[in-house]
Amino acid sequence: MGCVNVGWRGVTTTQVAAVAAASAVMILSLTAMFAADWLSNTLMSIGNVELTKSMGGGAVLTGTVKNTGSKPIERLVITVGNERVTVNMPGGSLQPGMSTSIMVRLNGWFVAGNIYAVTFEAYSPDGDSYAITVNVKC
């Protein structure tokens, strides 16, 4: 049995145009969303992240933050579980191309051997932001 060509029966030109227009709007919206994120230029890399359990249940989070974008980073908001900590950059901001080490004391109860998602949100002075999430073993 061969292929059957059913054609466009029952579909009007207006309906085809409406579907095409809606598809174009959706593609443009997604492109604009990704372009806006890319063009924010508040980019960073995170390295050497360690989460070390402290005596008494808390933990210490350490790592290196490098500004790989073209805008300064004014502050970081670090989220581990339900705990959020704001870290202001030394000297007021971390300039493009520069790195800094961070050390944050966390009060939550962390279990040695467990893996935790750690989100680093970088904010520039003009309000742009960029976030990276890494998994860290305690």
Structure explained in plain terms:
The protein is α+β, with helices and mostly antiparallel strands and 138 residues long. Helix content is 20%, strand content 41%. The strands form 2 sheets. The chain has a 4-stranded antiparallel beta sheet with strand order 4-3-6-7, with no helix packed on it. Strand 3 and strand 4 form a beta hairpin. The protein is globular, with a radius of gyration of 23 Å. The model is unreliable at 16-40 (pLDDT under 50).
List the SSEs and their pairings.
Elements: H1 13-39, E1 44-53, E2 59-67, E3 75-80, E4 83-88, E5 99-106, E6 115-123, E7 129-137
Antiparallel strand pairs: 1-2, 2-5, 3-4, 3-6, 6-7
Mean pLDDT: 79
User: Order of helices and strands, N to C?
Assistant: HEEEEEEE
Count of distinct strands: 7
Biggest sheet statistics: 4 strands, antiparallel
Computed over alpha carbons, the radius of gyration is: 23 Å
Shape: globular
Poorly predicted parts: 16-40
Helix content: 10-25%
Report the end-to-end length measured between terminal Cα atoms. 63 Å
Strand content: 35-45%
Individual helix count: 1
Secondary-structure class: alpha+beta
Q: Could you give the order of strands across the largest sheet?
A: 4-3-6-7
